[in-house]
Amino acid sequence: MAMASPFSSLEHVITVTRDMWFYKLNVRFWLEAISGRSCSNEYLQMANKATMQELHEWGSMYEEKFGYAFVTCAAGRTYIYLLN
To answer: What is the pTM of this model?
Structure first.
């Protein structure tokens, strides 16, 4: 990123970042990046027990299928958004 700066616009930053993430980093670096994730469960504060169970079940199925925990940016999103 430092070598690509200064950036002329937000679009330029996004393009450089996307190109680096998808074309220059291999999967090993992706896994390293998400392995240090923190689990912010703010979206669960409004969820009832049945919804929490459904989120857990979908997360378990995802991890069983792909071998990794489902990671998403949930900031400002509700549990309904995540289930859809």
So the answer is: 0.49
Q: Is 15 in contact with 6 (CB distance < 8 Å)?
A: no
Q: What is the pLDDT of residue 45?
A: 67
Identity (one letter) of the amino acid at 71? V
Cα distance between residue 34 and residue 69, in whole Å? 9
Tokens 């049945």 correspond to 50
Q: Which of 40, 16, 27 is nearest to 67 (CA)?
A: 27
CA pair distance 4, 16, nearest whole angstrom: 7
- Stretches where the chain sits below pLDDT 50 are none
Residue 15, amino acid: T
Rounded to whole angstroms, how far apart are CA atoms 39 and 21? 22
Task: Reply yes or no: is the peptide bond before residue 6 cis, omega within 30 of 0.
Answer: yes
- Per-domain boundaries in the chain: 1-36, 38-84
